[in-house]
Amino acid sequence: MLNKFFKFLRGYVIINVYGKNAPRFLSICLRRGFRIYGARLSDKGILIEMDARDFMRVRGAAKKCRVKVRIKEKHTVRRAAYARRYRIPLLIAVSICVVIAAQCAGRIWLIEIDGADDKYIDSITATLDEIGVKRGSLKKNLPDGMTMKKKLLEGTDGLAWAWVYIDGVKARVQVYEKIIPPSVVDKSEPCDIVASCDGVVRGMTVKAGEERVREGDAVQTGDLLVAGTVSAYREGDAEKYILIHSIAEVRAYTTHTASGEYKLTREVRTPTGRRKRWRVLELFGKALSLPHGNVTYENYDRTENRFELNIPFFGYSGVALNTVEFDEVNVTTEQIPLETVIENAKNELEEKIAKELTPGAQLDDKSVEYEQTDNETIKVTVRMNFTENIAASVPIGVAEDKGEKNIDDKTDRSTAGD
Amino acid sequence: MGKKLSERVADAWGVPKDVIMDMPRITVTGDREIYIENHRGIAGFDENSISVTSGIGRVTVYGNNLKIAAVRREDILISGRFKKIEYEVKNVK
Q1: Burial A85-117 (b: 16+ CB within 10 A, else e)
Q2: Based on the structure, what is the number of domains in chain B?
Q3: Which of A92, A163, A222, B15 lies in the 20 to 30 Å Cα band around A75?
Q4: Among partner residues B41, B44, B67, which is closest to A38 by beta-carbon distance?
Q5: Contact yes or no for B46 and A41 at CB 8 A
């Protein structure tokens, strides 16, 4: 292809060489350094494709070999332009297309935001609008990269870094979110410790606060385990209480249960080989749906592909072809062995339970039960027992005190600052 | 028959013989394409054969729809459907 293009640019002629000594003529031309692109037989002689400039020098070789040379075709840029000199409307249309393409190429037609969570998209889009990065805006009018970065970081709180890459007519906004460090526990803030889940207390290590439960006690979620309201009693003085930040580890025997319904059959989708394609041409942000038929398949899989036309040294040209493929499938159901269903269900439910656990929880025992709800479905229940730390800090007054003391009855209360 | 000096040199030094001995290098791709390097010109051209002269004599390619797809001073590319390649090696003393 490239060879043909350069051949055309240089200009070449196809000559017909008549006579017995045509092969000799070809050899002499080669020896004299003429540029010959190819040769083939014709009805009367040999057709030779020769460089247009070298053709001017063939007379001597032709005379020497006693052959006749006739031009059959001429292919040069000048000749092509001359032959099309009356096609003014075509020339105007081509010129208009070139001008439109040049204008469109100088603008932004597609904006992509990479690396941002959905919650930041609106904010980033608003900032981009504000700084002029929007569809149809001129690339040359955009502010410099550092300014755009600064504006983006100022406009959206959760971003650590941002940059706008211009790739042809596409603006790709790359952002990185801030990694928010875990909140520091304020130990000056008084708090109680409550049970984060139901369980039976097996042991307690209280560093600060007053125990409200003992080993062997059964507690429910939200029950007060360690109180941050501590009595500061001194003989002879009135009864006083101080509020402190409770610190304790409460190990309890807990039970976690998860269950779900699972099918004993699964869907098998087998492609039939029939396929339909819908194509949508995207020109500088405008979608043009190309003619297509209706999808009459009962069952099908849908796949979407996008091809962007990139120009070397420029990038995305603003022209893209979106293809939606519909592959017809036969849907059948297949029986799954009961053991497989239970094993899969167990793994899934264990994963679900693991999300509820506190760090450092130790598994004591577990059981899996199932019951058939109908011919195609079973209900699987996984029960797991752990020993884990159920202590959870809450502000004082939120917890429900199950102990014998009731601090609400106390009239004289003082804080740690008193 | 004894070897020529240039052939001995090529053997001893491990240099390709087409470089030292002025032999043609012929590359055949299936029965569709023949690439001949180091040729000395085209000796004959008709519907069913193309003859090329070389340092070792005439090499003739027989086949159908033969054409010279590309030709330069040193190499030639012949395309078509080949049947055979024949060497008419000149006598070397």
Answers
A1: eeeeeeeeeeeeeeeeeeebbebbbbbebeebe
A2: 1
A3: A92
A4: B67
A5: yes
B chain contacts of residue A40, beta-carbon cutoff 8 Å: 67-68
Q: Is A405 a member of any domain?
A: no
Does a structural domain hold residue A193? no
Kindly identify which residue of chain B lies nearest to residue A32, measuring between CA atoms: B73
Residue A86 structure tokens: 């009356």
The separation between the first and the last C-alpha atoms of chain A, rounded to the nearest angstrom, is 92
Distances (CA, A) of B35 to A40, A108, B58, B64, B74: 16, 50, 15, 17, 11
> Looking at the domain assignment, is residue B16 inside a domain?
no
Name B46's Cβ contacts closer than 8 Å, sequence gap at least 6.
A41
Domain-terminating residue out of A177, A208, A229: A177
Is residue A22 within 8 A of residue A67, CB to CB? The reply is yes
- Regarding pTM above 0.90, the answer is no
Q: Among A177, A200, A227, where does a domain finish?
A: A177
- Whether B69 is covered by a domain: the verdict is yes
Kindly list the strands in the beta sheet with A210-211, ordered across the sheet, starting from the edge strand earlier in the chain: A210-211, A224-227, A191-195, A391-395
Cβ A395 vs Cβ A193: under 8 Å? no
What single letter denotes the amino acid at residue B56? I
Burial of A391 (0-12, 13-18, 19+ CB in 10 A): buried
In angstroms, the CA A372 to CA A316 distance is 57
Q: What is the pLDDT along chain A (418 residues), one digit of tens a residue?
A: 778 888 888 899 999 999 888 889 998 998 898 999 989 888 878 999 999 989 989 999 999 999 999 999 999 888 888 887 788 888 889 899 989 888 888 888 888 898 878 888 888 999 999 988 888 888 888 888 899 999 988 888 888 889 999 888 889 999 998 887 776 777 788 899 999 889 999 999 998 888 888 889 999 988 889 988 888 777 777 777 888 888 999 999 999 999 999 999 988 999 999 999 999 998 887 888 888 888 888 899 999 999 888 877 777 888 889 999 999 999 998 888 889 999 999 999 999 998 888 888 889 999 999 998 888 889 999 999 999 999 988 888 765 555 444 444 333 333 333 3
Domain range enclosing A142: 110-177
A interface test, pick of B35, B73, B75 with most A CB neighbours within 10 Å: B73
